[in-house]
Amino acid sequence: MEHLLLEKQLKAVADLNRIKLLACMKNGEVCVCDFVDVLGISQPAVSQHLRKLKEAGIVTERKVGTWKHYRLVEDQTPLMIGILQQIQPMGSCQCKTSCTN
């Protein structure tokens, strides 16, 4: 594994809020609006955490109207497979708004 990618991925998962984001996405795609509720922080702060996960190649995004939906990348590195196996899914990450329209 490329050392730069290894460093990015380790830094990306070395934060409790980003671990919670990954736990949410273990059940599938999640809208950014739901991460705000789960973490209890502002949408710009959530976006910064998601940007770091995306830059590390751990998550990908899909735009739906004005909202972005995030999910885990299907082809994870062996490092991330091992880390993700240790993270328990969080079940409270479901869209409660009309963001899917």
Automatic annotation (TrEMBL):
Regions crossing the membrane: none
Pfam families to which the protein is assigned, alphabetical: HTH_5
Transcription keyword on record: yes
InterPro entries tied to this protein: ArsR-like_HTH (IPR011991), HTH_ArsR_DNA-bd_dom (IPR001845), HTH_MetalResp_TranReg (IPR051081), WH-like_DNA-bd_sf (IPR036388), WH_DNA-bd_sf (IPR036390)
Highest taxon of the lineage: Bacteria
GO molecular function, one term: DNA-binding transcription factor activity
All residue ranges annotated as the HTH arsR-type domain in the record: 1-92
CDD domains per UniProt: HTH_ARSR
Keyword field: DNA-binding, Transcription, Transcription regulation
UniProt entry tagged with the keyword S-adenosyl-L-methionine: no
NCBIfam families: HTH_metalloreg
Protein name: ArsR family transcriptional regulator
Native organism: Ureibacillus xyleni
